[in-house]
Design goal:
Elements: E1 8-12, H1 30-35, E2 41-45, H2 47-50, E3 60-63, E4 70-73, H3 81-93, E5 102-105, E6 117-120, E7 126-130, H4 133-141, E8 147-149, H5 156-178, H6 182-199, H7 201-211, H8 219-235, H9 240-254, H10 260-274, H11 281-293
Parallel strand pairs: 1-2, 1-5, 3-6, 5-8
Antiparallel strand pairs: 3-4, 6-7
Helix pairs in contact: 3-4, 5-8, 6-7, 6-8, 6-9, 7-8, 9-10, 9-11, 10-11
Length: 320
């Protein structure tokens, strides 16, 4: 699969090694700077610096209501809520923000934390958890855009899912920017079909039925509904049994082109994956080898075969 340009990914500045933390340090995330840096264009941002807090500074925390918390200085009690929200609004007005295909946020940050950010009562006692003020504004502005915390990217499944969603969202945005017609929507869905099945066959069928209405129903609401369903389906973690279903479908495309020994080898490789003996990359590598030797016009165009650049060391983990 050919990737003609890198996705634009927003990132909390501290994760790139910028010294913008409250203590004057940073929170450099090695997977971000050493691996993802090869395939993503970064758009760094620190809402607390943009809010004028400076560094080093007193730590801040979320206080009050879970749905609309305030950003309060831990020592002085100064309320930074207006400034942080203004910083978020400033970022969302930037031209670069409108080109984003994903965002990686600092975990547990009162401004950037995506989930489980500690929330406190007015008396200083812990109340529960909430979402960082900037992260909440980002999610409200771009509800379909993939967002992830750097800590969760330590999980190989979440790493893979984030990469899949980023490149899928970029493909979807590219389609929207170039103009959607019923025929182009059908073509887009056809390329994504096996990938969608790997995430959830039921949701994939629903999207297929929706696409079948292209040319029969008003296009604009149909496209909007498809985009929401497309990204929602990919947000679901793929399951081994769905991957096996997809691999077996590809076997069906090849069965009349392979020798008995090659068919047996490929089938055994899929079964080894099902039996937790090899990672997904093993049957996929063999499958792509046979598809190169025996091209199938529909199968070879499937995004599932290469949903992200090969520089990303994903799909190599063992299922448990």
């Amino acid at each position: 699969m050919f990737f003609d340009s890198k996705p634009n990914i927003g990132v909390s500045s501290c994760l790139l090694g910028e010294a913008v933390r409250f203590n004057g340090g940073h929170s450099r995330a090695r997977f971000v700077t050493d691996v993802l840096d090869k395939v993503f264009n970064w758009v760094p941002f620190c809402p607390e610096m943009e809010a004028g807090m400076g560094t080093p500074r007193e730590a801040v925390r979320l206080v009050g209501d879970e749905e609309s918390p305030r950003v309060i200085g831990s020592n002085t009690g100064r309320d930074w809520t207006v400034e942080v929200r203004s910083a978020a609004e400033h970022f969302l007005r930037l031209p670069a923000a409108r080109t984003l295909h994903g965002f990686i946020l600092k975990k547990k940050s009162p401004s950037c934390g995506m989930e489980r950010v500690p929330l406190y009562k007015e008396d200083g006692n812990k109340k529960g958890t909430s979402m960082g003020v900037f992260a909440a504004a980002l999610k409200k502005a771009y509800p379909l855009m993939p967002m992830e915390e750097e800590g969760r990217l330590n999980d190989p499944r979440l790493r893979e899912n984030f990469a899949v969603r980023v490149y899928a969202f970029k493909a979807w945005r590219d389609l929207l920017s170039s103009g959607v017609s019923p025929a182009r929507l059908v073509e887009f869905h056809a390329r994504q079909k096996m990938l969608l099945i790997a995430h959830h066959p039921g949701q994939a069928r629903k999207l297929g039925k929706l696409v079948a209405l292209a040319g029969k129903e008003p296009l604009s609401p149909l496209v909007e509904q498809y985009g929401k369903g497309f990204m929602a389906c990919l947000a679901l973690s793929p399951r081994m049994k769905y991957h096996v279903q997809v691999l077996q479908r590809f076997l069906g495309f090849l069965k009349n082109h392979l020798s008995p020994s090659d068919r047996s080898e490929l089938h055994d490789c899929v079964e080894q994956y099902r039996g937790h003996l090899v990672p997904l990359s093993v049957p996929l590598t063999l499958l792509k080898h046979h598809l190169r030797k025996n091209p199938h016009p529909w199968a070879n165009q499937q995004t599932y075969l290469a949903p992200f650049p090969r520089q990303l060391p994903l799909r190599n983990y063992m299922e448990v």
